[in-house]
Amino acid sequence: MEQPRPPVSVLIADDHRLMREGTAALLRIDPRIEVVGMASNGREALSLVATRSPDVVVLDLDMPELGGLEACAAIRSRHPEVEVLILTVSENAPDLWAALRVGARGYLVKDMPPAELVAAILDAAVGQPHIAPRMAGRMLNEFARSNVQAVGDPLVDLSPREREVLALLAGGMRNREIADRLVLSEATVKTHVRHILEKLHLRNRSEAAVFATRHHV
User: Fold this and answer.
1) Smallest Cα–Cα separation from 23: which of 116, 91, 96?
2) pTM of the entire structure?
3) d(Cα 197, Cα 131) in Å, to the nearest integer?
4) How far apart are CA 36 and CA 20, in angstroms?
5) What is the pLDDT of residue 212?
6) Cα 10–Cα 15–Cα 19 angle in degrees, nearest 5
7) How far is residue 85's CA from residue 33's CA, in Å, rounded to a whole number?
8) Per mean pLDDT, which range of 76-80, 138-142, 198-202 is the poorest?
9) Which of 113, 129, 146, 152 is most buried, by CB atoms within 10 Å?
10) What local confidence, expressed as pLDDT, does residue 64 receive?
11) 98-124 as b/e, with b when 16 or more CB fall inside 10 Å?
12) 1-9, long-range: CB within 8 Å, 24+ apart, which pairs?
């Protein structure tokens, strides 16, 4: 008999107490989600991620001490197995692009239906992106208005660590060997490999190895 999946552990970071406690209360209603911590700023969120090991972090964009973008970048760099959702009042396209560039798995606006937040968290926990529908529409409009696509570094979206993993993968190393070489856990290496495949739009390790060789990684 298949065992039920454990609840998705979530950390909430928002400098407005009412917002973070209200969000936590909302999420606690759903048995598929477990709130493991709350933070009032990005620096506190980063510290709690290290001790609570959440599956998903829900970050406000504008927070004191360390903003949502900076906190997201730090979390994704230090804990690549943790997914991040940005929850904000901002509907500005530049904020959306900036969040995606630093590794956010989704971008949500605070006036969305509660069910959408739950769905976004469950999606993020399995590596699926979730963009607020009207923001997704703006993304499409941005693409439609773009007349010129600059041809740049095909590895620009990879973090320095992901480039290291890709180079070792191209050399024929297995996850365990890569983990030993970079002093990482095997689970972290698997997460890096998954993100590399997603970012480069590749299907498997073999394609990644060919890609790396072709681009002299």
Assistant:
1) 116
2) 0.64
3) 20
4) 13
5) 81
6) 65
7) 15
8) 138-142
9) 129
10) 87
11) bbbebbbbbbbbbeeeeeebbebbbbb
12) 5/32, 7/31, 7/32, 7/33, 7/34, 8/32, 8/33, 8/34, 8/55, 8/56, 8/121, 8/122, 8/125, 9/34, 9/35, 9/36, 9/52, 9/53, 9/54, 9/55, 9/56
Sequence letter at residue 210: V
| pLDDT for 132 | 83
The two structure tokens encoding residue 51: 């001790």
C-beta of residue 171 within 8 angstroms of C-beta of residue 141: no
Closest by alpha carbon to 120, among 109, 110, 131? Answer: 131
In our burial notation (b when 16+ CB lie closer than 10 A, e otherwise), range 47-75 reads: ebbeebebbbbbbbbebeebbbbbbbbbb
CA distance 142 to 40: 33
Cα Rg of the chain, angstroms: 18
DSSP string, 184-197: --HHHHHHHHHHHH
Is the sign of the CA dihedral 89, 91, 95, 99 positive or negative?
A: positive
| Half-sphere exposure for 185 (CA within 13 Å, toward CB) | 7
Looking at residue 135, what is its pLDDT?
Answer: 79
What pLDDT sits at residue 60? Answer: 95
Residue in 2, 42, 38 with CA at minimum distance from that of residue 21:
38
Sort strands 83-88 and 106-109 into parallel, antiparallel or unpaired: parallel
pLDDT at 150: 39
Give strand pairing partners of 10.
Answer: 35, 56
What is the pLDDT of the chain when averaged over all its residues?
A: 86
Question: Looking at the predicted structure, is the pLDDT value of residue 86 above 80?
Answer: yes
